[in-house]
Amino acid sequence: MVPQLVSVLLLHLIIVFSFSLAASDPQNYRSFLRCISVHSHYNDGLIPIYTPTNSSYSSILNSRIQNLRFISPKYPKPHIIATPLNESHVQAIVICSRKHGFFIRIRSGGHDYEGLSYTSRLINNTSLVLLDLSNLNSIDVDIDERTAWVQSGAIIGQLYYRIAEKSSVHAFAAGVPTTLGVGGHFSGGGIGYLSRKYGLSADNIVDARIVNVEGEILSKESMGEDLFWAIRGGGGVSFGVVLSWKINLLDVPPNVTVFTVNRNLEQGATALVHKWQYIAHKFPKDLTMFVTLTKVTGHETIQASFQSLFIGGTTQQLLQIIQESFPELGLKREDCIEMRWIESVLYLFGLRTTNSSLSAFEVNAAISSFRGATDFVKDPISKTGLQGLWRNIVQANGTSPSIILTPNGGRMSEIPDAEIPYPHRAGNLYVANYNVHQSQVSSSKDQALMTKNLRRLYEYMAPYVSQSPRGAYVNARDFQLGYNEMWTDYTPSYEEAKIWGIKYFKNNFDRLVRVKSRVDPDNFFRDEQSIPPSFS
């Protein structure tokens, strides 16, 4: 069956195809479809609409689900999937969803840790519309202006590739994996291998286009300073549908140097990680060294993988820096590889391939079921503390735990906490990102085990991380911090939302609430961790 296409001429076909839709009010649903046809611009074509009766519904839904646990039947699925082809389609969907009382979920890449871009903990049968932006993926790179416009449905790998098509000495500061959606990644901040040199993705955004609650398209100039501030790190889905972003391109040399050095406990991993905490945030801005901690399969030991990107010169210069500040690592010339920046993207994503075509940047890594959480570390953890952490990783039986340590410092420590909503700047040594994986679609028992093992890691780390509040990164959403109830007409109080809000945004939370109160006072754009519209 072809997708159900909304237009005046085909409206009667949509209604026939959709009688089995599990909506609370079939008449309201038909009115919703008529509304979309009225508000769709004739010259902009037809809006692809999918419902559970359509043969393509499951493939469209699952195409950007990046966490297998959300494929489980226990998670509510959207009643309608809309895949707009242009900006006016998004306007029509927002206007009509609001008019007819439908909830919206906005999906770009589908990497939300709690699946909020395509599922919901709705407490009643109110219809859920998934606004899938994957067709809005154009990227326009202007090397002369040193900028690019990128639509929110593009993925980070496509952006990297399009920049490299035009220039070998320009890049952008964003994360891995390459399948991260631009819309969610940018709006939550965007940490990556170039952040110590240039800051977050959101620090390098200079304009944006957003559909507001009235269905209007606003630019930086027309949306105003406060809203433009809020969507760069405050989570854009609380304020509207961000259609596209204008970014500054960033300088990189023709060749960069990467390396990966693996050490287990028997090879001195504890002492190396302990030393890394004291120096990684002090390295020159051109050098970033991540650490990934994993349990060695089949063994009661831990592997620490030290992985670096150096954009400040030759391999010899990198070796000199490491020899002076971190000789214990034992880095050798043969560990280092010089390559173009665009090739380093694939290397750092773990793709050891000579294929540098666009398809290589659109490849998903092995998708698993997982749960995750984050912390910010302000003081080095003692060797004894690290040894206790190793025990917790080893004891996470039935799951595959990993912890990624991302250094702060450099440009990240120079930008004021209130410059954008992301506040975790000076004073933080590194970010700890905990993940607990299973390779298959999770049963309820499996999910409980993942949650248990993640909580054990998270609770163990409590004495060693930021306090009052215990900070967290909004791009790694965690319902264990708290969440809003999702009654149809329920608006969470400021005090309820503040429980989790200050952990993500610290003192910037109050300004986000003020912006929300002005641009979306009726709380149309909402999810389980959206910004509330009032201080009551």
Automatic annotation (TrEMBL):
Its cofactor is FAD. Keywords: FAD, Flavoprotein, Glycoprotein, Signal. The keyword ATP-binding does not apply. It comes from the Eukaryota. Transmembrane segments: none annotated. It comes from Stephania yunnanensis. This is FAD-binding PCMH-type domain-containing protein. Residues 1-24 form the signal peptide. The keyword Lyase does not apply. Gene3D superfamilies: 3.30.465.10, 3.40.462.20, Uridine Diphospho-n-acetylenolpyruvylglucosamine Reductase, domain 2. Pfam families: BBE (PF08031), FAD_binding_4 (PF01565).
